[in-house]
Task: inverse folding
């Protein structure tokens, strides 16, 4: 049996000597391309479905991001309006030693193409007293 196994060794050596790995890989790859004569209808439909899902997902994400950006902008504008009004009241308090509270003052938050978005600004005050060990500290909460 050993002789029979050894008799195949020259054949394997001849095959190894004549083997060119780059040529074998290239011919194998081109053989696969030649064997595939195109794409089937199912493959095209699957690719189209994947593309539609990806484009739809990206579109929904962009719409949501735009909506969230608009919401954040309006919230920031409303915060700035309230902050500015409190600052104005504080300066008036320093000059005149009084606050001028108001209710429901209409302010423009966003002027969109379709319609302007208005909000109502209200400023209320209330007098409080804070107690420490032996002292009282009156203050006005705005």
Result:
């Amino acid at each position: 049996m050993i002789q029979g196994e050894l008799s195949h060794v020259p054949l394997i050596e001849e095959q190894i000597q004549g083997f060119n790995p780059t040529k074998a890989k290239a011919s194998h790859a081109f053989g696969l391309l030649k064997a595939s004569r195109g794409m089937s209808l199912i493959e095209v439909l699957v690719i189209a479905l994947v593309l539609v899902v990806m484009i739809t997902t990206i579109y929904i994400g962009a719409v949501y991001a735009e909506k969230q950006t608009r919401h954040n902008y309006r919230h920031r504008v409303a915060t700035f309006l309230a902050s500015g009004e409190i600052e104005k009241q504080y300066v008036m308090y320093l000059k005149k030693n009084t606050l001028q509270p108001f209710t429901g003052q209409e302010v423009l938050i966003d002027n969109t193409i379709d319609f302007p978005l208005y909000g109502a600004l209200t400023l209320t005050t209330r007098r409080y007293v804070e107690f420490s060990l032996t002292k009282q500290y009156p203050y006005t909460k705005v």
